[in-house]
Specification:
CATH architecture: Up-down Bundle
CATH class: Mainly Alpha
Strand content: under 5%
Oligomer: single chain
CATH topology: Ferritin
Radius of gyration: 20 Å
Structural class: mainly alpha
Number of helices: 5
Number of strands: 0
Helix content: 55-70%
Order of helices and strands: HHHHH
């Protein structure tokens, strides 16, 4: 795990009126947070827990997509992202440790629904191009869902002054965006409507 970053937050104004944005080991919150920020922090921590559960669920589900994919390029793309997902789980666990909070685990019905759809699609499609196309569809749905959550969590972290956490969330976000683009490229490279 990369520990090259240290905790960063906006400190109180110095004598010259400028904010000090230096890295340090203190958490980015204090006892003087406004009620609105306190509620936002609670929402932030709850959604972090949900994201942790989502990534763990995908660690278990993603291998099935890999198993039933037939295109070597698709298989490679899915396999690469599974490795990223393991890292995402570890990074989210580290974020909770940095915040000094227990993980607020919460089931995500949206992802469970997408995964159930994946099982249905795989079981009812022929092996080959059509099944690969279906797998890409399901994988991209998952990626778009994760992108929307990570993007929002990043924004919350910045508002709350949790800049190191924001940096770590942005790393996960960029991984999801890259996988989405790779899936689009795979789809464009081998799915020809005239051959279906």
């Amino acid at each position: 795990m990369d520990n090259s970053f240290s905790y960063m937050r906006n400190s109180k104004d110095g004598e010259n009126g400028h904010h000090n944005n230096e890295f340090n080991d203190e958490p980015g919150w204090d006892d003087n947070e406004s009620p609105d920020l306190s509620e936002l922090r609670n929402l932030f921590e709850t959604e972090l827990g949900a994201m942790y559960c989502i990534e763990n669920a995908l660690v278990e589900a993603w291998p099935n997509l890999i198993k039933y994919a037939t295109s070597p390029t698709l298989t490679e793309t899915l396999t690469d992202h599974l490795q990223c997902t393991y890292k995402h789980v570890a990074k989210l666990f580290e974020i909770h440790s940095l915040l000094g909070k227990d993980i607020k685990q919460r089931e995500c019905e949206t992802v469970k629904s997408i995964l159930r759809q994946a099982e249905d699609v795989i079981s009812h499609s022929r092996k080959g191009l059509v099944r690969d196309a279906a797998i890409i569809l399901v994988a991209k749905k998952i990626e778009h869902y994760e992108i929307s959550i990570y993007d929002t969590l990043y924004a919350y972290a910045m508002i709350l002054g949790e800049k190191k956490v924001a940096c770590m969330l942005n790393q996960n976000l960029e991984d999801e965006k890259r996988t989405d683009l790779n899936l689009t490229a795979v789809s464009a490279s081998f799915i020809n409507p005239n051959t279906i």
